[in-house]
Amino acid sequence: MIQTNITFENELQGIENLAEWNLLKKMLCSFSKSTGLKTIIVDTQGNTLFNSTDHEIKDCSFRRTIREESIGIKKCNGIKVCTQIKDCTDRQARLAEELQARERSKVAMRIVESRTMSINSLDKEYELKMMVRNGEKRAAQQLLNQLLVDITEVKYEHFDTFKTRVIELVVMISRAAVNRGADLNVILQQNSSFYKELLEITTTKEICARTKEMLETYMNLPDFNKYQKNFKEIQKAAEFIKINFRKKITIENIAQAVYLSPCYISRLFKQNLGCTISEYITQVRIENAKMMLKSSQYNVTQVAKESGFEDPTYFARVFKKIEGITPSRYRQYAF
């Protein structure tokens, strides 16, 4: 309990009748009311003579010497007036601890949310980069809209920080456009123009609109290096197939190996080689089988297995469909 002891030495000396006590009582009640403190009067024996909560004065002897060396109150003639602050220290301490715990919890939640948002943002940015690189215009536009919403929802201390965040996004998109085959000089000119415009823009709405226009421009740029770029990507995919044709491979496996989407790599094969990826894989397997059939070291079942066919019957059917004869007949003609 916090207790404040105040000695009214001058005021208490010479009080010997009820009228004076009533006056003192009013004074102390007024003091308690204005300060919010509980006020009591005790005699030198520690007996309570007045309590501001019940406004009662008890009869007592007024001429005693106060000796309370333990709390350092000086000697005087009269009565000691003590003011007690209500016992709220424990409650205040608990409240302070709760407030601190809540604040720590809020900080932790903000950190978790920030990290989660950062991770989600990086994932989306990577997806957007791949969409731009693969020429998936509509999907890229939709994902850019989501990213711009995420960016605008963040509370930045300075508007320039928001602009910097958008510039980072535009740089990433422009690099993906170059990887897709767009002319580097054209991209650099577009970026320079965008940066100059950005300095004059003062609202997030205008910046978002201009960023969407930039994506539209990038996606519509002609692919000057398209043929060369497509050839390299097809070459990488074909190399992966030739290394792994004995295993069970899917379009997803191939796309992941060459960092392209399954739809895009499938379209590349169809447009440039005139066949699907599955047809190309089958052709690679049959070519390997033909080489093995020229050797008497392997039987047809072994050839099928070593060529990526789990079922020898299915292998024979596919082989005849492509070559026009069965594997066994092909072996006879090979020798």
TrEMBL record:
One Pfam family linked to the record: HTH_18
Q: Does the keyword Metal-binding apply?
A: no
Alphabetical UniProt keywords: DNA-binding, Transcription, Transcription regulation
Question: For the HTH araC/xylS-type domain, which residue ranges apply?
Answer: 235-333
Q: Is Transcription given among the entry's keywords? A: yes
Q: What Gene Ontology terms describe what this protein does at the molecular function level?
A: DNA-binding transcription factor activity; sequence-specific DNA binding
Which SMART domains is this protein grouped with? HTH_ARAC
Q: Which SUPFAM superfamilies is this protein grouped with?
A: Homeodomain-like (SSF46689)
Name of the protein this chain belongs to? Response regulator containing CheY-like receiver domain and AraC-type DNA-binding domain
Show the InterPro entries listed in the entry. Answer: Homeodomain-like_sf (IPR009057), HTH_AraC (IPR018060), Tscrpt_reg_AraC-type_HTH (IPR020449)
